């Protein structure tokens, strides 16, 4: 039996999960969960990277001896090291406001259309490239490390940039599969800070002596580069039986798209807001970021009501399409009183606000399902590929109402699960690197029992509902 530790960092919590592989049997166990709480200091919103590091070490201690360790996280955020390898300040949170107006000021140097031809990325104001242009510590930096690469460096002393996360920075040439060094230099970002690229499965060193002592692990324990963007790990674990599938990695954000053998870089694709991010084995994750369960999470937090199952049961009985929102409207991006923002959005768009909490929950979920439908339809049209099934993975796979609404809205069967897709993909890439696994998706199919939701009702009802709002 082989045991792998997957460190899976999300926007609100981090986990250390052990994945045991014994022939065709795969077991997944969460051994430690810790809070990922942003900290605002001196007017800037930071990640508490030291708390994440300590939470990871605590989890590795609880995991016991493992055959390898891998780390995945959200994208775009980074740490900067000085010439002595010391961290220059806490990484800044992507929801911090420092990048406001940066992209617009950059267009005189490099237009959005030209940038898209190189990077293939959806315009998001918090992309790494814009953060670096607003970075006061840039002139002191010797190395840029994305969050998983920074934590790997602290574990092993080895510096590198895993390619699935590097491809989200806006500094990666999606066609060449290399850093876009010329683009960086043109923008005044020193290309020398960009470390050597690593592919998923590449070795990232073994544990420092002090880390081995603190965790009780062997200093010979390897750390393996996985598909370190959590969505890339999640997509790697999609239990697809056919190639003609769309995926929704559903968590705080929803990343909705399909796998493509090559990037789609048309002007229409750019204007539609699609990204071409690198996936496992050089595939392209052709996707669009859609706001995810964040709106629901913030609503529940504002109500002080932790009984989400009861809210979902009530929402199922609420009147359909009472009100709809565009989940990607900027009003829903920042933390705050989300129910009040939903009401204000409805007033602004000529709708009656939802009548109570159940109606608000239904409004959010119906709006997400419509956004998923629109994104999948756009991806199919722009890529020329066909889709016959939707795989919904991540935390949203637990939300039966959202899954059923997605099937109803798209007119396609929705296969929900695995919930722990990112951690599972993380661990199975490690296992494949050691020769324990050959076909990741085949093993997931045999080890998981996902739930399939068939479309029901009249899809024209969803079409008419979707026509009520101009989505971003």
Automatic annotation (TrEMBL):
Keywords: ATP-binding, Disulfide bond, Kinase, Nucleotide-binding, Rhamnose metabolism, Transferase. GO terms for cellular component: cytosol. GO terms for biological process: glycerol metabolic process; rhamnose catabolic process. This is Carbohydrate kinase. It comes from Planotetraspora phitsanulokensis. CDD domains: ASKHA_NBD_FGGY_RhaB-like. Belongs to the FGGY kinase family. Pfam families: FGGY_C (PF02782), FGGY_N (PF00370). Residues 246-433 form the Carbohydrate kinase FGGY C-terminal domain. Residues 451-472 are annotated as: Disordered. GO terms for molecular function: ATP binding; glycerol kinase activity; rhamnulokinase activity. Residues 4-235 form the Carbohydrate kinase FGGY N-terminal domain.
């Amino acid at each position: 039996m082989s045991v792998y530790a997957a460190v899976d960092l999300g926007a609100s919590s981090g986990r250390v999960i052990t994945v045991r592989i014994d022939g065709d049997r795969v077991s997944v166990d969460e051994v430690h969960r810790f809070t990922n709480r942003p900290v605002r200091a001196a007017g800037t919103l930071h990640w508490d990277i030291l708390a994440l590091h300590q939470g990871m070490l605590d989890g590795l201690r609880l995991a016991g001896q493992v055959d390898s360790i891998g780390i995945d996280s959200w994208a775009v955020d980074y740490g900067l090291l000085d010439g002595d390898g010391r961290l220059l300040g806490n990484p800044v949170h992507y929801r911090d406001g420092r990048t406001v107006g940066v992209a617009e000021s950059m267009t005189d140097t490099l237009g959005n259309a030209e940038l898209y031809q190189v990077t293939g990325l959806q315009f998001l104001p918090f992309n790494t490239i814009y953060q670096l242009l607003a970075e006061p510590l840039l002139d002191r930096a010797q190395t840029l490390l994305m969050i998983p690469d920074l934590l790997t460096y602290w574990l092993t002393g080895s510096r590198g940039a895993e390619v699935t996360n590097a491809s989200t920075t806006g500094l990666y040439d999606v066609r060449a599969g290399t850093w876009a060094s010329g683009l960086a230099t043109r923008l005044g970002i020193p290309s020398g800070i960009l470390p050597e690229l690593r592919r998923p499965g590449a070795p990232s060193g073994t544990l420092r002596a002090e880390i081995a002592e603190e965790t009780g692990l062997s200093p010979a324990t390897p750390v393996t580069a996985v598909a370190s963007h959590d969505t890339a790990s999640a997509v790697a674990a999609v239990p697809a039986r056919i190639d003609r599938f769309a995926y929704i990695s559903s968590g705080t954000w929803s990343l909705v798209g399909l796998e493509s053998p090559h990037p789609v870089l048309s002007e229409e694709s750019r204007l539609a807001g699609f990204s071409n991010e690198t996936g496992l084995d050089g595939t392209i994750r052709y996707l669009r970021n859609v706001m995810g369960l964040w709106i629901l999470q913030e609503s529940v937090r504002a109500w002080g009501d932790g009984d989400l199952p009861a809210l979902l049961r009530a929402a199922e009985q609420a009147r359909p399409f009472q009100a709809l929102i565009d989940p990607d409207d900027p009003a829903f991006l920042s933390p705050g009183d989300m129910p009040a923002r939903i009401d204000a959005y409805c007033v602004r768009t000529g709708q009656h606000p939802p009548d109570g909490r159940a109606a608000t929950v239904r409004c959010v979920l119906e709006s997400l399902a419509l956004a998923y439908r629109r994104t999948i339809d756009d991806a199919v049209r722009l890529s020329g590929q066909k889709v016959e099934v939707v795989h919904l993975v991540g935390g949203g796979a637990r939300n039966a109402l959202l899954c059923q609404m997605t099937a109803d809205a798209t007119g396609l069967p929705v296969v929900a699960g695995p919930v722990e897709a990112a951690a599972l993909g993380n661990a199975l890439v490690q296992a494949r690197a050691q020769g324990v696994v050959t076909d990741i998706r085949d093993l997931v199919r045999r080890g998981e029992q996902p739930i399939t939701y068939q479309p029901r009702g009249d899809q024209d009802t969803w079409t008419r509902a979707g026509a009520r709002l101009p989505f971003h």
